[in-house]
Amino acid sequence: MTGTQAVPAAAAVSGSVPPPVAARRKPARGPSGAYRPPRATRRDQGRLGVLLVLPTMAMVGVFFLFPMVNAVYYALVEFDGLTAVPPFVGLANFAEILGDARVWDALQNNIVWIVLGTAAPLLVGLGLALLMWGVEKGSVFYRVAFFMPYILPQVAVGVVWGWIYDPLRGWLNAALEVVGLGSLQTGWLGNADTALYAVLGTAVWITSGFVFVILLSALRNVDQELVDASRLDRANRLQQLWYIVLPQIMPVFLMVTTITLIGGFSVFDIIFVMTGGGPAGATEVLGTYAYSSAFELNRISYGTALALVITVLAVPFTIALNRLQRRLSLDGAGA
Amino acid sequence: MSTTTAPRPAPVRNRPSPRRQASRAARHTLLVVLSLATLFPVVLAVSTALKTPQDVRVNPFGLFTSFSTENLVTAWTVGDFDDYLLNSVLLSVPSTLLVVALSTMAGYTFARLPFPGRSFAFYLVVLGLLVPFFTYMIPLYFQLRSFGLLDSLVGTNLVLATTGLAFGTFFMRAFFSDLPTELEQAARIDGASEWQIFLRIMVPMVGSGMAALAVFTFLQNWNNFLVPLLYQPNGDYRPLTTGLYLFLGGRSIDIGPLAAGTLITILPVVVLFVALQRQVTQGIVSGAVKG
């Protein structure tokens, strides 16, 4: 078998002379028996590969890698958007970030957002997925309904939820009145004590659908025989869930947790649209602060440095996610 | 594992005891209530948009008390939503086609065509999955300005496409990796060139993957807010998302046309999603699990 390799190999070594057609046609096999194309074919493949990947590399290079490297440069100089050679300031921007009270307030809001904005959608999404598990009738409608919030443009979502939170005629205040909790009525987005939680409520509505869809697909892969066996052993619903179901979906559950956590660092659209970071910074997060530093206060370098801080904070979670996904897709391949 | 593919018998069908039937009914009732509650904000948008302007003024958020298309007409003509809609198409269709075409090409290479430095190139591309857009959005603004690509369809499309390439390449690579080598070998024996093998044999086999990627990417680009907000500073080609945001800030008293603008913004997304919900959810799930 290995003998077939000799001919194309010799042809390839001899230079630009194309290999004999007969030699090129025979599929060669390595010692392991796995298919390994002849060298001439591999050369053709390499050429095509470079050609096919070139446009992607060009775009990634120009519109992603280059500005990313530039971001580090921007953070180390004081750029005003006009000066050709802005003065080098070293780590001054980062030092200023450490002493900036607005940054710490924003970080605090980010942390609240990450904790509650991860825990609540996980609980709601898991609940919905378990409720839907095994339901066939009407499952398309339920799936569309629960997942819909996640695919809508967040600007539009922000507009409509603004009406629900409307201080005078919003549905939330009306609902509180009906159930006799009228004393809790407030202007949800205009009140500094409630604004962050109001926007979070909307975010939970959005993200739960995502968690739901992922966990539902994980539940589909749960070994039903184990569940049935545990039922015969008179395990109650809660025991089945805790000992049989949850361990099996745990990797996916952890992964969805990490994705939601990472999203918490870079939250922007929904806050920007619903409150713009206000009132009085009550809903400001690092993302909205980076944006307003650069594009409203014209502190371009400071905004870039802030953006780098967000990235660095999210990196450990991103690496964890990466590991989880690799393990998961390996498991998937093995199953 | 055979249990994942074999259809799972519904446990309730075996023993339709009265207690089980009752629990099934309770479960469906709960599902109906919860799904309607989840859809409520969407219903609210539709209802407010389709009321008469007088009705909106008196009772802005009540559900379906009158019917009129007047708000839609106002949004369309006075609110420029006709332009925004066209711009949304012009900003999401080309960028989506670009992502699908380039990701398919690059994904095939990274899965099947070896050349020196291939894995390094792959890491450079998928680095985009790890780095948030925040990190480089500000330098990118000045870069586009120096290229003369601010307020242009080309510039915004290229940025939107680039943000989708990391995931697209990763996604398509997974599809190409799963294909068997036999067909490729047979084609080679028949004298097909590497280019023909790619275009005539491999690409047709990943059609479902390309479709899922197209729908997923289109939704992302259509919904994108930050990219057009930043790179269309004068709003020459402002899409629905930033157009709606501007409308929200400028005329927040006019709830009727605002609701109509919201409806115009979400309607294409809802229609596309309902029609292709399987592809969308598949794209999201495999995106999360694999990507």
Automatic annotation (TrEMBL), chain A:
Keywords: Cell membrane, Membrane, Transmembrane, Transmembrane helix, Transport. CDD domains: TM_PBP2 (cd06261). InterPro entries: ABC_transporter_permease, MetI-like, MetI-like_sf. Coiled coil: none annotated. The keyword Transport applies. It is found in: Cell membrane. PROSITE patterns: ABC_TM1 (PS50928). The chain crosses the membrane at residues 48-76, 111-133, 140-164, 195-219, 240-268, 300-321. It is a multi-pass membrane protein. It comes from the Bacteria. Residues 1-41 are annotated as: Disordered. Residues 107-321 form the ABC transmembrane type-1 domain. The keyword Protease does not apply. Residues 1-16 have a biased composition (Low complexity). This is Carbohydrate ABC transporter permease.
Automatic annotation (TrEMBL), chain B:
It is a multi-pass membrane protein. Keywords: Cell membrane, Membrane, Transmembrane, Transmembrane helix, Transport. The keyword Cell membrane applies. Pfam families: BPD_transp_1. Residues 1-22 are annotated as: Disordered. It is found in: Cell membrane. Coiled coil: none annotated. Residues 85-276 form the ABC transmembrane type-1 domain. The chain crosses the membrane at residues 84-108, 120-142, 154-176, 197-219, 255-276. Belongs to the binding-protein-dependent transport system permease family. PANTHER family: ABC TRANSPORTER PERMEASE PROTEIN MG189-RELATED-RELATED (PTHR43744), SN-GLYCEROL-3-PHOSPHATE TRANSPORT SYSTEM PERMEASE PROTEIN UGPE (PTHR43744:SF8). This is Carbohydrate ABC transporter permease. It comes from Aquipuribacter hungaricus.
